[in-house]
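hey can u check if this looks right to u? its 418 residues, i copy pasted from the old doc so theres a chance i mangled smth
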Amino acid sequence: MQPVASIPSPAQGVWHLGFVPIRAYALMIIIGIVVAVWLGERRWAAKGGQPGVVIDIAVWAVPFGLVGGRVYHVVTDAQRYFGEGRDPVDALKIWEGGLGIWGAVLFGALGAYIGCRRHGISVAALGDAVAPGIALGQAIGRWGNYWNQELYGRPLDTFWALEIDPAHRPRLEDGSLDPRYADIATYHPTFLYEFLWCVGVAALVIWADRRYKLTHGRAFALYLAGYTAGRFWIEWLRIDDAHHVLGMRLNNWTALLVFIGAVAYLYWARGKTGPEQVGAAPETGPETEAGGAVAAPEDATAKPDAAPEEKDTAEAAAADEKDAEPVSGTEPDPEPEPEPVTPEPATSEPATSEPATSEAEAEKDEAPEKPKKPEDPEEPDRPKGSGEPGEPEASSESEDEPADDDEDAKAEPVKDRK
């Protein structure tokens, strides 16, 4: 049976760059993974998660998924790899095709769980973020079946039918061509059906998530329900060898059970709301004090507050030294006129001649750090109480010369005036 129009099959699915084979099947899988991670990363950031988390978790989920997909395929199609005339080593040739989506999802979820535990985030929240990306990745990966001319459906005579070469048509257990399909060249393009269906599921999940704010694993459950609903009827069209249970293919039973479980979860979680643990970076501010991670920023903010105080203290000390310079200098103070009239009232007059200084200034003035005073020897000839306010000479001379009663009497009024 040869239709007028059909979808042609590729002439080859492998190219060689020198001695390195480039397989179309592997390229489709890789592109699907990249698209899934890219879309999942964007959706995860939109949920408030840290950028790069999906990529980190993919390092765990992707290898687990590939191994799980291959294990499921080998277990459910063991007759292809084990038995008389079979080579068990072929079970390792993943590039020749054969990945079971159920094993890939199950093992991939296990790898994602390990990654989520390491990052301290919710597995359900991550599943909601990556669900549409997984659907798109499956859609792209199905084109690998096209390049390998595998997993097609029943014979079909129409313009969208897929041509299959005789070398890839169904065969008997002994490896000979099945006579039922020897003269049939076109079949249902189940890869194309699943590609379109998965794209529709991804669009549905994105729309429903925006419309109904699906959280706590509901977006992932919707993906499972949508995918299994399509996989059930697509699996029913396929004619490749498969295990049958109660007259139905094993993959149909698996799709049915997963569909029921996904719908049940959607019903059970229909009212779940509240925040999810997405591992967002803590904001620096007083509202996040309880987190403990912001302790360092608070200390950092305390240091700048202390810096202005030190600066003000230094400026005040500099100003005090500047004010004290005329007192300790060699030039006489411009306002000492009223002091020689009576010796004792002179102790109160300096309060009007100069502003009072603090005890800290007095200690600085009394310190023997400024010995540059040529008139110091004249100090003992001054009358009692005639010292200038804030003069350090009394204390400095007391260290250089033996202190007498008159000098001690002069030092006390200086402190009182200060």
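Residues 337-418 form one domain.
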